[in-house]
Amino acid sequence: MHVLIIGGGGMIGRKLSDRLARDGQLKGREIARLTLHDVVEPAVPAGAPFATDTAVSDLSVPGAAEALVADRPEVVIHLGDQGRQMFVEAHPPCPYGAAP
Prior knowledge:
27% helix, Rossmann fold, two-stranded antiparallel sheet, alpha/beta
């Protein structure tokens, strides 16, 4: 099976890709290929028993998302966090310091 992790360069994406590399499967199905996507080059997990690709792009650019899923991954895990960053920039923290 082909797994795509959007946000694969982030903390959770790296931990998940390391775990998948260690287990070699997801929900009992063998992983044949892993694609890690982010806005920066994601690190490839060491010792993965399957092919691992990386992709760097900005999914807000027209056509970028379509290109990323063109080879039809069976599982897509979205861990990207740019939405929160944009929200925080548009809505500065309240004076009491509470997170949005």
